[in-house]
Amino acid sequence: MPAMRSGSTTAYVLARLAQVLPILFIIIVVNFVLIRLAPGDPIAYIIGDAPVPEEQIAELRGKLGLDAPMYRQLLIYLADILTGNFGYSFISRAPVVDVILQRLPATLLLMVSQYVLAIAAGILLGVISARRQGSALDTGVTLLSVVGYAVPVFWLGQMLMLVFANKLGLFPAQGMVSLRYDLGPAAKALDIAHHLVLPALTLAFFNLALIARLTRSSMLQVLRLEYVMFARSKGLSERTVIFKHALRNAVLPVVTIIGMNLRTIIAGAVLTETVFAWPGLGRLTFDAIYTRDYPVLMAMFILVGMVVVVANLLTDLAYAYLDPRIRYT
């Protein structure tokens, strides 16, 4: 990195990681208490409407560790996760780590796809809009930004499904693969990509609108600075001035919002995956909330907390890489 020596970078990263432990502890304790205090009982979901003797209910509650006082349940849980044991799902009776790893690839595919689409299209539209300020294209991008920022994710997903899946039949409505066909590797990859289009568009629309609007605003400020006018006076091409000199500084606020907005994307993934029956971590979280699957919920909240902390750290490092004036010690 041009802005940081390797030694100072390592020390900064280690210092930030040391701050993660108390943060994770607070996340675990708060979520543990909130989940236990929330209405609903996992035992009621497990036994359903069948008449079950009280003795069997008490035995089941003891097997699941729900008969102890809350503080004792918390201490047991903290001791377990220190050894990497996140418990067993109340519903599937499988290890929570295995349940999450099974759903993780689908969520990573959806998240990476929507982020690539949102960042690439958002920055490009923002740059073009700033270069053509006051034009019809600029007005269109501004309108797109306002609408994209205001439209709820679950409503947009339902509208895209209604139009492009139900009415036009261009894309599948739900799922990740077509179960009716026995497809080869290449055909299966195309089939997954076909199913991916609508969920990725739904999740990317908000980010794309936000990035486009922020890039446009930042570019308008940077294009008025003296070093940009000096670069033009040297006879550099407009493409070089825009993408090599102006965009590098204009993109700094975009990097910040991408890192900070990750928590919103994770929340949106829960709604998007539920609407499109996408078999990822968002749908897993929704099902765990519905069934009061405490171990899965706790593991998901811990995972989300870790992702947000790491995303903030990477955002800070990206800031220093893009802006030589920033040094971390």
Would you write up a description of this structure?
The chain has 329 residues and is mainly α. It has 15 helices and no strands. The longest helix is centred in the middle third of the chain and has 38 residues, at 185-222. The chain is globular and about 85 Å long. The model has no long low-confidence stretch (mean pLDDT 82).
Features:
single chain, 329 residues, mainly alpha
Q: What is the averaged pLDDT score?
A: 82
Number of helices: 15
Shape: globular
Structural class: mainly alpha
Classify the helix fraction into a percent range: over 70%
C-alpha Rg, in Å?
24 Å
Percent of residues in β-strands:
under 5%
Q: Topology of this protein?
A:
Blueprint: H1 6-18, H2 20-37, H3 42-47, H4 54-63, H5 70-82, H6 96-131, H7 136-150, H8 153-167, H9 185-222, H10 226-233, H11 238-250, H12 252-260, H13 262-275, H14 281-291, H15 294-322
Summary of the model, kept short:
The chain has 329 residues and is mostly helical. The chain is 75% helix and 0% strand. The protein has helices at residues 6-18, 20-37, 42-47, 54-63, 70-82, 96-131, 136-150, 153-167, 185-222, 226-233, 238-250, 252-260, 262-275, 281-291, 294-322.
